[in-house]
Amino acid sequence: MAENESIVGMQQCLSAENTRLDIELNRVYNKFMKKMKKDTSPDGLEIVKRIKDAENAWIKFRDTSCSLDGATMLVGTGQSLVVVGCLNKMTDDRTKYILGLEQTFGPDGGAL
Question: How far is it, in rounded angstroms, from Cα 87 to Cα 93?
Fold first, then answer.
């Protein structure tokens, strides 16, 4: 059995992908927030607050949802694979969502 075909090997591959996806999400989020913080009007400040609140809520949702997904494998060795696979998908989806928000709020950070 090749190393990457074992549970440990698959876990290492998924974990490496998770790190890459998390770094990309943080890069996209920080770039977006930097742009959004340029608008210091009351509306701009409210939008930034809502983005932060949504991101914090999403992190809790992601973690608890993926933990629940992992419960399907509680008695098996694949639980960690299910959890990290879920984290990877949700993190990638979130990055795409934030990139979409950039389009919604325009190049200067204000609402269109």
Answer: 10
Instruction: Determine whether 27 is exposed, middle or buried from the number of CB atoms within 10 Å of its CB (0-12, 13-18, 19+).
Output: exposed
How many CB atoms within 10 Å of residue 89?
A: 14
- Which of 70, 65, 73 is CA-nearest to residue 94? 65
Residue range 8-102, CATH number: 1.20.1270.180
Phi, psi of 90 (to 5 degrees): -65, -35
C-alpha 42: how far from chain center: 28
What confidence tens digit (pLDDT) does each residue in 26-81 have?
Answer: 999 999 999 999 989 999 899 999 999 999 999 999 999 999 999 988 877 788 88
Measured between alpha carbons, how far is residue 81 from residues 22, 49, 91 in Å? 17, 34, 15
Tokens of 57: 């809520």
